[in-house]
Amino acid sequence: MRPPRTDDKRKLIGQALARVTARARTGFDRIPVGLMAAGSELGPDELLAGGRQAQAEDPRLKVVALGPRRPGYEDLDWLETDEAELPQALETALDEGRLQGAVALHHPFPLGVTTIGRVVTPARGRPLLLASTTGTAAAQAGPALIYNAVFGRAVARSLGLAEPTLGLLNISGAGQAFRALTALQEAGYPLKFGASGRADGGALLRGNDLLNPAVDICLCDSLTGNVLMKLFSAWQTGGSYEALGWGYGPSVGPGWRRVVSIISRASGAPVVAGALRFTAAAIRGRLPEKAAEEMAAAEKAGLAAVLAGLAPAEAEAPVQAPPARPTEEEIHGVDVLDIENAVACLWRAGLYAEPAMGCTGPVVKVPRDALAAARDCLRSHNFI
Questions:
Q1: What are the residue numbers of the active site?
Q2: Local confidence band at 24 (pLDDT 50, 70, 90 cut-offs)
Q3: Which comes out higher in pLDDT, residue 10 or 285?
Q4: DSSP code of residue 384
Q5: Whole-Å CA distances, 139 to 41, 112, 135, 153
Q6: Mean pLDDT throughout 355-373?
Q7: N or C: less crowded end of the chain, CB within 10 Å?
Q8: Domains, the chain, ranges and CATH?
């Protein structure tokens, strides 16, 4: 191992002195979290007001504003830089350890890194994590949902939730993801499913379950999560001002060590303050270490095989439908992406079936006297 360079020594000494000074003043270490203080549609004062609010609400947090210095905010620390150089200044400050995390309006996350947002739900005022809201955990939708569940648990645990409950928003791919996550759970991954508050229950969530959250973590793709974040944050203001919640959340991914949280150009001071406090809490809760623990547990439970099972199947030869018959019964639980393949599977077994879309998602319609055989067939081929 090479001896520390002079610059490294100076950096370590500077960080140690800063911690000693902070502890002498407050009785504890303050976590320096950067705030990108330019680029908002609401103006820099809105961002800085959020920084001031966060620092008042969490005395263990030290907000460090990055951008052109503005008068009237001397109570905040500053890293002055031109607006054009702000992204690089943020990268440098994180690399040098001057910041332990950051809240940014934009950050170029690599493929595999996503963010886990947090919203206030209107029915009870309870928080709900959205996994995920920006970035992408994988190039394909199916694996991305599985990773989102793993990383959602990591963020929840960093906030102190020992056994967070997870539900899957009833979107395309949710059925496949549920089967894959169930396989991980049965192989030892400590995933705890929640249940819908609707009469039929189950881990698939309806919109009602988000308003009055039935779970701690809502699993969805990042585009859906992004839309939900905007709706929950700005539904009271007409959309131009995000007034509620904690923002789009901290970044997390395999081997990713930085805690960089995202807000939008419409995020108002309350959301900026929430994002800063969320970031500090994730840092205190050792989010990167929690993510590594979750990945190790998932891999031990067979994550690689589960992800391989989500790869698109090779196209099979077309099959002729059996003679049409009345279809009085419905089979629920087939993912919309699998509905055509599920019907073809039944046709190959000599069972007539039709695809249809019900109020809660896709259904396979079958004759009443073929219901049991059709269920067994779909179950044996992992469609339900």
A1: 359
A2: very low
A3: 285
A4: -
A5: 31, 8, 10, 20
A6: 82
A7: N
A8: 6-100 (no CATH), 114-308 (no CATH), 329-380 (3.30.70.1530)
